[in-house]
Amino acid sequence: MATTAQSGQVPRKFFGWTNVGLFFFIQFAASGFVYFAYSVVFPVMVETMGWNRGTASLAQSIALMMLGLAYPLTGFLISRYGVRRTVTIGLLVMLSGLLLLVSAVTEIWQWIMIWGGIMGLSFALTGPICSQTAMISWFNIRRSTTIGIVMTGGALGGALAQPILATMMDQFDSWRAAWLIAAAMVIIALIATQFVIDRPQDIGQFPDNVDPGLAAQDPLAANLRPRTHRTGHDWTMKQVIRTPTLYLVMLITLGYLATFFFLLNHGILHLTDSGLSSLEAASILGLAILGSGLARIPAGWLGDQFELRWTVFGFLALMAFGLAGFWLGHGVILLSAMGMLFGAGYGGMLVLGPVVTGNYYGERAFPIINSVLAPVMLPFAAAAPAGGGYIFEATGSYDIAFAIAIGLLVAGLVAAFFMKPPLAPGHAQ
User: Fold this and answer.
1) 220 falls in which pLDDT band (50, 70, 90)?
2) Residue ranges of the domains in the chain?
3) CATH 1.20.1250.20 is the classification of domain 16-199+233-418
4) pTM surpassing 0.70?
5) SS3 sequence, the chain?
6) What is the pLDDT of residues 92-101, one digit of tens each?
């Protein structure tokens, strides 16, 4: 099979799969034990400190807005310095924020500034765009599958973090213990990041370890081509914004992100308000995150095999059904099942969302699209945590917030039905 290094280079073992493993762990630590840890630590902070839910939730909304506003910086750093250096900077910022959470938070404004500003910036610099960019560079045939594997790391870390951090906070009677554990995980992730190689060209290799020059002459390699659409056009941002598909993708993205942000912030509070214990509520949300993790590799495989609009439609439907059950259901078993369904839908979308962008618009346009559109979309999605909190404070329940979230998912389902690969400029319908 045509799997040789570039001319003049000494052949070495294909590094793409090593990169997959490294980014899996980076997401496990940074996303799982930091970002997902929020859902279990935040309720304890609110209750311990006696904070207003709506005001305290502003920290998450500001963090998400910062995430969006900082995406152009992330795209610039990736294009200028590469993924490895960008993630290193992000993890150092994240570590600084966590240490401040442990040592400096006594007032709500300090919490809002640190989580909203410092941690929000770190999420942009360490977030999925970095690992997804690396996977899109290293893989073409197995692009969706490898993104699914990498993104599973964050979900697995989050599922493990929920009960671990809940237990540690209970044992030490302090929410600060949770952030200290998260800081230790970030240090390990920093070490792992130094072994990342940004692009196959950097070490004389090819995406998927297949030399395109030799593949045409190799019958075995010739069969290794994508089953789903891959654009052959080198898209510019000016061309991208003229395609209706982009705005359907934006609507879908807004729906699944805003819904998840809302449930991550208020899911445990909703369950404890319904009579469940804190441990039961944390375990149910942990199962939702576990469901997200379990769905990501299958979602990646499906995304490499079938037309994306149907796979996207299916996972959005899982989110909508699971969220409705999470809202209206009763009993630990039913709520756990609904949480896992919702999580599975979100996990699938977390994989398929960037795959749509990468497949429809190409490797070169991918980080540009994300860095330009994130500041537009994320502020709207970021309204979900604070909005849900203020709705609760005004009405005494989360009913209106759940209804709005389901409405957003239904709008996403309609958008997915009409989503098709955009035609390259100059091609007739």
Assistant:
1) low
2) 16-199+233-418
3) yes
4) yes
5) CCCCCCCCCCCCCCCHHHHHHHHHHHHHHHHHHHHCCHHHHHHHHHHHHCCCHHHHHHHHHHHHHHHHHHHHHHHHHHHHHCHHHHHHHHHHHHHHHHHHHHHHCCCHHHHHHHHHHHHHHHHHHHCHHHHHHHHHHHCCCCHHHHHHHHHHHHHHHHHHHHHHHHHHHHHHCCCHHHHHHHHHHHHHHHHHHCCCCCCHHHHCCCHHHCCHHHHCCCHHHHCCCCCCCCCCCCCCHHHHCCCHHHHHHHHHHHHHHHHHHHHHHHHHHHHHHCCCCHHHHHHHHHHHHHHHHHHHHHHHHHHHHCCHHHHHHHHHHHHHHHHHHHHHCCCHHHHHHHHHHHHHHHHHHHHHHHHHHHHHHCCCCHHHHHHHHHHHHHHHHHHHHHHHHHHHHHHCCCHHHHHHHHHHHHHHHHHHHHCCCCCCCCCCC
6) 999 999 999 9
